[in-house]
Write a structure and sequence with these properties.
Elements (H helix, E strand, L loop, with lengths): L1 E7 L3 E4 L6 E3 L26 H10 L3 E4 L23 E3 L4 E3 L5 H10 L3 E6 L6 H12 L5 H8 L10 E4 L14 H18 L4 E4 L12 H10 L5 E8 L6 H5 L2 H22 L6 E9 L4 H5 L17 H16 L4 E6 L9 E3 L5 E3 L3 H10 L3 E3 L3 E3 L1 E2 L7 E2 L1 E8 L4 E8 L6 E8 L5 E8 L8 E2 L2 E2 L4 E2 L5 E2 L2 E6 L3 E8 L11
Parallel strand pairs: 1-21, 3-4, 3-12, 4-7, 7-8, 8-9, 9-10, 10-11, 11-12
Antiparallel strand pairs: 1-16, 2-15, 5-6, 13-14, 15-19, 17-18, 19-20, 20-28, 21-27, 22-25, 22-28, 23-24, 26-27
Helix pairs in contact: 3-4, 3-5, 5-6, 6-8, 8-10, 10-11
């Protein structure tokens, strides 16, 4: 099979906001307890944070982590998670039917984030609570001193303000599963009032309003439109959430699902622009795709789980090679929409539908999806370039005209590198890819990294990683063209640079 892509230095989509490589930690399952925090573990530091997990998070180069939820936040009293740990209450956690001991809270998570080299994206409870609790939390976190809430923070050992800049106005409030689910009108009014007092408390913050919880929600479209009627003047972003599954074991259809993600993005961006026109505004509301991933492997196990325990194993999907390809396609889709998607969060980061898994008291290890995310985060910084593609397509059960090649190019002018990310969706044939390069005449081939395995159901485990990146055979440029071979069903990273580096960092 043959594919052709044209890359021109001057034909750009937009600049990559580094926050599209964000992730998510919710008080759910073993994400916190047994994930990032496990006092007594051989790798725990003096605060109880697992250093092996922090090392893997740093490998992923995650710039921002959303916290503390998720469905969890709609029933969360943030005051339960501050102050002396021994005085914090244990609560019934209604979103996931567990017990929450509140041993981790706002200050602990900020400390963890700094050790992991990331920033915090904080969500406020607009389910059981409202504007007053939201603005109090902003004051607690961000005001310097001299007020009741800022001085309370200082009494808790945090003299300097946390300076959290990115805030979510609730979570999935369109969903009937949400604690205190609301209509679009109810949520829009509440979110607008919360946004006002939060920004009055700290004018430097940015706010994310809840969009639809998925493109297949019955209120999708009308929800965004009505919410934006209320929050356009106050919110900076609208959220999108999407999860994909392959319950029907239909791989060609599964690999085409990123087309649905692309359509979702473009539709919500259009609704944001309609709101701008209706308001005769000058501000462009951009997108925060703050939950996205593959999620379905753990569903049966979760239905059998015992309720009302602390940190049970929940949503612990073990990802396959096939899942890594879908995640790769989703990353490419985010990059192809870099002009509008400015924040995105892989949901989640540790143990719960996550690239990083741990054993309680034992190892931490990389899932298959760890590698496409790491490659994109490491090499996908700079300017996204338009990449017209010529390749055969196929139809599946749900989608039509799925290109066998999914690809995008990112130019980093500062590093003088050009990176092409590519997924070959063909399950049986390698693809001979010809990349026409314009404006990169003095760029030379650096390396071709590939992730593939003939067994699409192969997984990684604490016992070893069957799925790891490999170096493909070096290729030479022929004038303005670069020819590479993409293995069947593979994720690929092709890197070029103006000058070969003295050494090439290991990509894995």
């Amino acid at each position: 099979m043959k594919g052709k892509v044209v890359i021109h230095r001057e034909f750009s989509i937009g600049e990559v906001d580094k926050r599209i490589y964000g992730s998510f930690i919710e008080h759910l399952g073993r994400a916190v307890y047994g994930g990032i925090y496990e006092p007594g573990h051989p790798e725990a530091d003096e605060a109880g944070f697992r250093k092996d997990v922090i090392g893997l998070v740093r490998e992923l180069n995650v710039p921002v982590v959303r916290y503390p939820g998720g469905n969890f936040v709609s029933g969360y009293n943030w005051e339960d998670g501050v102050g002396p740990v021994e005085k914090r209450p244990v609560r019934q956690e209604l979103a996931w039917m567990t017990l929450e001991p509140n041993r981790m809270g706002t200050n602990e998570f900020v400390r963890w984030a700094r050790r992991a080299g990331t920033e915090v994206m904080m969500a406020v409870n607009l389910g059981t609570r409202g504007p007053d609790a939201a603005r109090n939390l902003v004051e607690y976190c961000n005001f310097s001193k001299g007020t009741a809430w800022s001085d309370l923070r200082r009494s808790h050992g945090c003299e300097a303000p946390h300076g959290i800049k990115l805030w979510c106005l609730g979570n999935e409030m369109d969903g009937p599963w949400q604690i205190c689910h609301r209509t679009a009108a109810e949520y829009g009014r509440l979110a607008a009032e919360a946004a006002k007092v939060m920004k009055w408390t700290d004018p430097s913050i940015e706010l994310v309003a809840c969009g639809s919880s998925g493109a297949r929600m019955p209120t999708f479209g009308s929800w965004e439109s009505e919410v934006l009627d209320h929050v356009y003047d106050h919110a900076d972003y609208v959220s999108l959430h999407i999860y994909f599954d392959n319950r029907g074991n239909d791989t060609p259809n599964f690999l085409g699902k990123s087309l649905e993600m692309d359509s979702f993005i473009k539709t919500v961006a259009g609704i944001c622009d309609l709101a701008k026109a209706k308001k005769r505004g000058k501000k462009t509301v951009n997108l925060s795709f703050d939950e996205w991933n593959v999620w379905f492997h753990s569903n049966d196990a979760d239905r059998k789980r015992e309720k009302w325990t602390v940190a049970p194993s929940q949503l612990e999907d073990i990802y396959t090679m096939e899942d890594a390809l879908v995640v790769g396609c989703m990353l490419i889709t985010l990059l192809k929409n870099a002009d509008r998607v400015k924040v995105a969060c892989l949901a989640q980061l540790v143990n719960v539908i996550a690239p990083i898994m741990t054993e309680n008291g034992g190892k931490a290890w990389r899932q298959t999806i760890f590698y496409p995310f790491m490659h994109a985060s490491k090499y996908g910084r700079g300017t996204v370039l338009r990449c017209p593609v010529k390749v055969a397509t196929y139809d599946s059960r749900e989608y039509t005209d799925i290109p066998y090649l999914e690809t995008v190019a990112v130019h980093d002018p500062a590093a003088e590198t050009l990176t092409l990310f590519a997924v070959n969706r063909n399950l049986t044939e390698a693809m001979e890819l010809e990349a026409g390069l314009h404006g990169f005449e003095d760029y030379r081939f650096i390396e071709h990294i590939t992730l593939h395995n003939p067994d699409l159901h192969a997984v990684n485990s604490a016992g070893g990683e069957k799925i790891r990146p490999e170096k493909a055979a070096p290729r030479k440029r022929d004038g303005p063209c670069l020819d590479v071979t993409l293995p069947p069903a593979s994720w690929n990273v092709i890197r070029l640079g103006r000058a070969l580096p003295a050494h090439i960092d290991r990509p894995f």
